[in-house]
Amino acid sequence: MSLRRIKVQASRYFTRRGSCILFVILIWFLFYHLPAPPSTQNNTRADRPPPEHRVEDTARFIYRSPFRNDPNVQYEQQLSNALEEIEKAVLTQSEESNISKDRIWQIAKSQKDRGEDSIVFKGKNKDWIYTLVTDKKAVEFLTNELSAIPEIATIYKSYPQNILRADLLRYLLLWYYGGFYADIDVFPARSIKACPALEPFFALTPDGYTKSTHPDISLVVGIEVDEPYASPKFMRDWHWTRSYGLIQYTMYAPRRFSPLLRETIVRVLAHTRQYNGEHTSFFPSLAYDEKTILGVTGPDVFTDAILDTLSSSLPSTHPFIQKSVDADADIGDLISAETGELEKRVTWAPFHRLRDPVCIQAGEAVPNESMGGLCVLPISVWGNGQRHSEAGGFNHPDACVNHRFGRTWKKGWWEYIFG
Ligand SMILES: *[C@@H]1O[C@H](CO)[C@@H](O)[C@H](O)[C@H]1NC(C)=O
Ligand SMILES: *[C@@H]1O[C@H](CO)[C@@H](O)[C@H](O)[C@H]1NC(C)=O
Ligand SMILES: *[C@@H]1O[C@H](CO)[C@@H](O)[C@H](O)[C@H]1NC(C)=O
Description:
Keywords: Transferase. Pfam families: Gly_transf_sug. This protein is of the alpha/beta class. The chain has a single domain (about 65-205, about 215-419), classed as Spore Coat Polysaccharide Biosynthesis Protein SpsA, Chain A (Alpha-Beta Complex), CATH 3.90.550. The protein contains 13 helices and 13 strands. Strand 5 (about 200-205) and strand 6 (about 210) form a beta hairpin. The site of one 2-acetamido-2-deoxy-beta-D-glucopyranose has 2 residues, from loops.
């Protein structure tokens, strides 16, 4: 081969390689450095026809996360005990009750990321103490209040994406302080205390003032997805890993130190540790894909932690367990493949097509297991404006918040350009 030919080939090789690298850099830039797309007015996207609603004959009321195949039980137990130590220390030291103050928490990287919705949210709930937790405040909280478990701050700081940090932080804030959490793109359709579904917590006095009542409930959650009959295709169209799930963009913790949130925190940390141990990535920001985020910090881990904690703390005669077992009769998901034994536990069945709020009091748990009490709200209260799960529109009479589904994420630009 002549020298000249080698030179030509070499330069061809380098230009091809060069343009490949440029292309990768460009894509990376587009994904991670583009500002958020322009917001749509009132979720006009919701007027487009939804994907075809394909369903199967059989429902699935239970999914098992791959992260629960082989959990590090010892590590989880240690973390859980360490969190309980913090709870005891705080409550005995201050001799306070575990009733939360009326506090609203929102999370944003910095003050300038706050939009109109967040300002209206604060304005509509003037009798609540409002805190915007910026990155800086978050690190202060983790290193001061949670100094007993330095690993929390370490893991928090190690996350390559904001969404992962914001997920973990919301559970920690509501566990430690209690109060109301909402994403900054949540619009208050009503004030918190005027929300009909939250009436057990805020009774109206004869003089017209709302007064806090204190049922023994540590956490109130809403429903985001309720399609247990969804076909695999239908789920792919919506990018779901499972056909049911609870909301974690809005949560209310009327009492501090909810065991349900404690278990969520334990799992987030354990799943992160497991995932990092199994994956190393050349581009850290690409290390967590959408599905992983759901299972490590997002709605999947949150929903599982709650269903599993109910299962381990409610007596086997509890109506939720009865309902779950009955719904499984023709499905068999609760029958162990190895032993043929029926697992008596809580599945999604008691929450399917919920019409009214349902609450389990803390005292319904078996004596040695606490779950702190839970209320689950029907989908239209916090999950309205979605084109599935029979969610009502933004103006549904149950609606207390409207979530505009952010569009600040990668998907936002895709939808903005391609509809
Ligand atoms: C958008 O929603 C707000 C509050 O719900 C309402 O006041 C406004 O009229 C709506 N705008 C449009 C264009 O529908
Ligand atoms: C809060 O305190 C009450 C009364 O002492 C107790 O019944 C309840 O289980 C506690 N809740 C939590 C979440 O610790
Ligand atoms: C419940 O706890 C008490 C005291 O902590 C203990 O004596 C008892 O054996 C426990 N019962 C069960 C069923 O674990």
